[in-house]
């Protein structure tokens, strides 16, 4: 039998403080011996975000011959990473088996990415960065933005004397004293970012203009000392006059200008921009000589130039950024109407709607029809006031449901001649494996250990049995839908289930992952999410059964 190339620690031999002995266990034996342990315990034990394989805690593992290591077999994190043929690394669903020597360095293993933003002021960098942070965090990569402008404002304390004030003169490339301070601030932010990655962060985003080659070189020189970090430059270029005018208006309400007279602010910003333009060097051939990977996003992803993209994570970032748009739209989300299983508290299954659930579905179709007309009116008003960021056009509403009976029945009142209706398997409820069709009380009685394991770590917990899923599994299958949802320009109604709704709202409302699996998402509640350039507006409606209509309620995050 062929020997497994990567020995790991056997829990049978790892008792108390004694150094674990290295044993080699063929993966086939392992899979056969511990199917359940492999599915659940590893994910539960795995520190969030490093995708590292933790040995199963099963007593049924046959101990095999201890392997003697020769000095040439010892690995370092970088050597192990270099040896990796593929960089796919998805928290909770991809596990990398580590050699025993590297077990203490598990936190260093997951690939680290430093994203360095490039672009003139008011090119939507901070907007892109916020979206990217939200998306990557939702995919369970710890992501943090390090904004150099904020550091500058804190350093200046609103005081002109130390030269860090935000007047346009401070950004003059010929102002050497100020340039030194700006470079210093950029490096300090980078240091903070690196320190954070070393403490376990995965993606650090350096949010600044970084608009000259000299500045980029400065950052790259520092990053050369960090072999475990990959670097991705993202440049935002904007030539669309409507978007530029909109960005300028946003800039005038930013911390630098919000307390200034509007005319004075416009004038100062115009001069600041001129200063930046004088020193601006777009990413190009000279940067390519440094062997970097980069992506240029032109007009919010309308045109994308990508160079030398290596690695799964960088690819994910770019795919995401090239797919979104700024069109105003409403994303409506709800669970299906009450099902007959809901009445008796059974989870999973494919039950039909109760009579009450059917009434909810009827009301939902009438309400969305009504909202469609209302939205049309308010968009016309926005367009007439010159506030629209994209041209006014006839809006269709897409309707997505899962493939389960209860969601399909909920949208029976929607006419396919008027709505683009799709039933999508990705939107199905979490599959509860051997617990399908049971109530929570029954699960607690029949499988107390499973019940407790889920209580302790609901996000990572995977239901046992064929096809059993965890929240993290559901996040992965929803990823293509998030991309599609960002790409679409039409209004959308999603009719789905409790877990899927929590996860989708988790993304749209940027809800902390510790809160997301416990979020209250009641039956017969409808959410309306409107992505706006300055953030997301969320409204919540409850179906009032007596009124047979929806009543707006306050939203708590
Ligand atoms: O009870 C309805 C339901 O959608 C079940 O099918 C599903 O297993 C459950 O909710 C998910 O909620 P939680 O993750 O809180 O157990």
TrEMBL record:
GO terms for cellular component: cytosol. Residues 11-22 have a biased composition (Polar residues). Gene3D superfamilies: P-loop containing nucleotide triphosphate hydrolases, Phosphoglycerate mutase-like. Signal peptide: none annotated. It comes from the Eukaryota. Residues 110-328 form the 6-phosphofructo-2-kinase domain. Pfam families: 6PF2K, His_Phos_1. Residues 1-22, 38-71 are annotated as: Disordered. PANTHER family: 6-PHOSPHOFRUCTO-2-KINASE 1, 6-PHOSPHOFRUCTO-2-KINASE/FRUCTOSE-2,6-BISPHOSPHATASE. This is Bifunctional 6-phosphofructo-2-kinase/fructose-2,6-bisphosphate 2-phosphatase.
């Amino acid at each position: 039998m062929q020997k497994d190339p990567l020995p790991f620690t056997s829990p049978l031999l790892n008792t108390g403080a004694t150094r674990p002995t290295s044993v080699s266990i063929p993966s086939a034996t392992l899979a056969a011996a511990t199917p359940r342990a492999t599915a659940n315990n590893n994910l539960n034990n795995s520190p969030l975000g490093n995708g590292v394989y933790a040995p199963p805690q099963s007593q049924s593992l046959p101990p095999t011959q201890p392997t003697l290591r020769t000095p040439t077999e010892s690995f370092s994190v970088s050597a192990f990473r270099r040896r990796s043929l593929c960089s796919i690394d998805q928290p909770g669903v991809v596990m990398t088996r580590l050699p025993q020597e590297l077990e203490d360095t598990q936190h260093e293993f997951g690939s680290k990415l430093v994203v360095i933003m490039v672009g003139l002021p008011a090119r939507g960098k901070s907007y892109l960065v916020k979206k990217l942070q939200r998306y990557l965090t939702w995919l369970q990569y710890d992501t943090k933005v390090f904004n150099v402008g904020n550091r500058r404002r804190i350093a200046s304390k609103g005081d002109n004397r130390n030269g860090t004030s935000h007047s346009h003169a401070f950004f003059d490339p010929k102002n050497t004293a100020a340039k030194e301070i700006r470079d210093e601030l950029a490096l300090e932010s980078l240091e903070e970012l690196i320190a954070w990655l070393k403490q376990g962060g995965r993606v650090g985003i350096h949010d600044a203009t970084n608009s000259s080659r000299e500045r980029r070189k400065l950052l790259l020189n520092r990053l050369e000392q960090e072999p475990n970090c990959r670097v991705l430059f993202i440049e935002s270029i904007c030539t669309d006059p409507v978007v530029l005018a909109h960005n300028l208006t946003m800039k005038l309400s930013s911390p630098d200008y919000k307390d200034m007279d509007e005319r004075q602010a416009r004038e100062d910003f115009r001069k600041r921009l001129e200063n930046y333009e004088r020193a601006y060097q777009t990413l190009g051939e000279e940067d390519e000589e440094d062997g970097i990977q980069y992506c240029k996003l032109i007009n919010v992803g309308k045109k994308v130039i990508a160079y030398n993209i290596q690695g799964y994570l960088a690819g994910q970032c770019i795919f995401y950024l090239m797919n979104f748009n700024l069109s105003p739209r409403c994303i409506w989300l709800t669970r299906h109407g009450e099902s007959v299983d809901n009445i008796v508290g059974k989870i999973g299954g494919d039950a039909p709607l109760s009579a009450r659930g059917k009434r909810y579905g009827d009301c939902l179709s009438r309400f969305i029809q009504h909202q469609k007309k209302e939205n049309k009116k308010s968009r016309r008003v926005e367009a007439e006031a010159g506030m629209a960021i994209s041209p006014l056009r006839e809006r269709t509403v897409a309707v997505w449901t899962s493939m389960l009976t209860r969601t399909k029945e909920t949208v029976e009142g929607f006419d396919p001649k008027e709505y683009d209706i799709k039933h999508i398997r990705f939107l199905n409820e979490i599959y509860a494996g051997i617990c399908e069709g049971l109530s929570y009380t029954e699960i607690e009685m029949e499988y107390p250990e499973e019940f407790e394991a889920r209580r302790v770590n609901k996000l990572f917990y995977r239901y046992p049995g064929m096809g059993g899923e965890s929240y993290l599994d559901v996040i992965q299958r929803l990823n293509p839908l998030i991309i599609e949802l960002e790409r679409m320009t039409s209004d959308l109604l999603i009719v789905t289930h409790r877990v899927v709704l929590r996860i989708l709202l988790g993304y749209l409302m940027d809800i902390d992952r510790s809160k997301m699996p416990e979020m209250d998402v009641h039956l017969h509640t409808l959410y309306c999410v409107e992505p706006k350039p300055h953030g997301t507006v969320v409204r919540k409606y409850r179906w009032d059964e007596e009124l047979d209509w929806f009543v707006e309620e306050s939203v708590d995050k």
